Amino acid sequence: MALRNGGIISVNEYAGKTIKEATEYANDGGFTTRITEENGKAYMVTADFKTNRRNFGGKDGIVIDVYGG
Hints:
By secondary structure, the protein is α+β, with helices and mostly antiparallel strands. It contains 2 helices and 4 strands; from the N terminus they run ααββββ. A 4-stranded mixed sheet has the order 2-1-3-4. A hairpin with a 2-residue loop joins strand 1 (32-38) and strand 2 (41-42).
């Protein structure tokens, strides 16, 4: 499956969506996801880098940051 936007990240595509909505949107675009931070608490994550993964930072269930890897 081809990645949406050629894999380019636009925070505006995700920011403001619920984590569930953002995850579904990312999955529909060919990406996998994980939550790396929520409500100021950072989670342990693996150090591997995947070009088809989106990492979400959230607050109160809403995406406030997204980055690749």
